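User: Predict Pentacotripeptide-repeat region of PRORP domain-containing protein's structure from this.
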Amino acid sequence: MSLISHPLKPCNNQIFFITSRLLHSSKPTSILSQNRVEKLISSQSDPLLAKEIFDLASIQPNFHPSYSTFHSLILKLAHTRHFSHVNSLLAQLKSRNYPISPSLFSRLIRVYGETNHPEKALKMFHTILEFNTKPLPRHLNAILRVLVARRGFLRPALDLFRSAHRYGVLANVESYNVLMSAFCLNGDLSIAYKLFNEMFKRDLVPDVESYRIVMQGLCRRSQVSKAADLLEDMLNKGFVPDALSYTTLLNSLCRKKKLREAYKLLCRMKVKGCNPDIVHYNTLIFGFCRENKAVHAIKVLEDMYRNGCLPNLVSYRTLVGGLCNQGLYDDANKYTKEMIRKGFSPHFSVFHVLIKGLCNVGKIEEACELLVEMLKFGEAPHVDTWAEIVAQICDAEDEVLRVEDTLKKLLKVEIKPHTKIVEAGAGLEEYMNRKIQTRRKKF
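Assistant:
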């Protein structure tokens, strides 16, 4: 509601007092000092109320709003999508010939982008010229980011990029990176590659991000060899690739089953100034396990220790799963126990596969010991896990004495509420009844 028509609805006493004085007095008083009014406008959370106070103050002969007041009020209104008021205030700024800070245009372009108004953002970029000033590279980059965020504006973004010199602004490396990233994500790798090579012709030096963007684009198109060549070119020019660049290439090499090349790349990283992290190591572990080469994954795990990178839950789960898939149950059992000692919780599915595997190869005692560890750790064995062990014990009558001590240990384990051992009861009872009936028939 308007303060003019409803003067008794101020948000607090200070606003009521000041606006009343603005309405009924044209004489300058201490309370109507420009500084005080500007502070009131800037601190007002309601942008429309702030605008109304601004309008009331502006009609007073002794009030001349500063640029900072315009700046603050314009951004308040822009963030709340009162764009017509924004245009009105910009027109006032223009008529008063205020020198405008470049940050105002940058922020307005971003606001229009955040509120999904790319056309207004583009218009704002052209508006800069109306204030007898040249756009800066940061303005160009801001509008490019807004445009490329919407697929339908990729071509307008490229057109603006190509014509930017007409406005007195030259694209920089960041400008190229914004466009290359957008076209790579859109699948237009040829355009991105052309832009990358264009930088050299313009005597612009691509940065690490430039190389990484093109490498990612190449890897998405399964052109791993070209991505690897680009990394070599990067190293030859003295760049130190960042961790993400290596991750991109390692992932692609593993997907293409080029595991030897991936491992060589991992070994080179530290030499070239980038220490491998847990993501790089886990990428290789996963790659080797996926291709049934879990023994090589063990080597990667050992490299981690030597290089001061500690395996995490993903490292162990991936490795144990890979070893089980290849029937390497002794190694899987070893790393499962190591995993537990380090405080990591194996998923019940990992336990189940390993216990089942141990049982299948006749290592019932080891399976029982692993189940004891599982219970001590507070994990809840699946019903099928219990059934697997009990079935093996009941079928191996000659080994009952050998596993008896292990079972006693098992029964002494404190069962915690979330262990849910009771859930196995019904299934186990049914199984035991079948076994008893079978034996009775034999006799």
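The CA atoms of residues 113 and 146 lie 5 Å apart.
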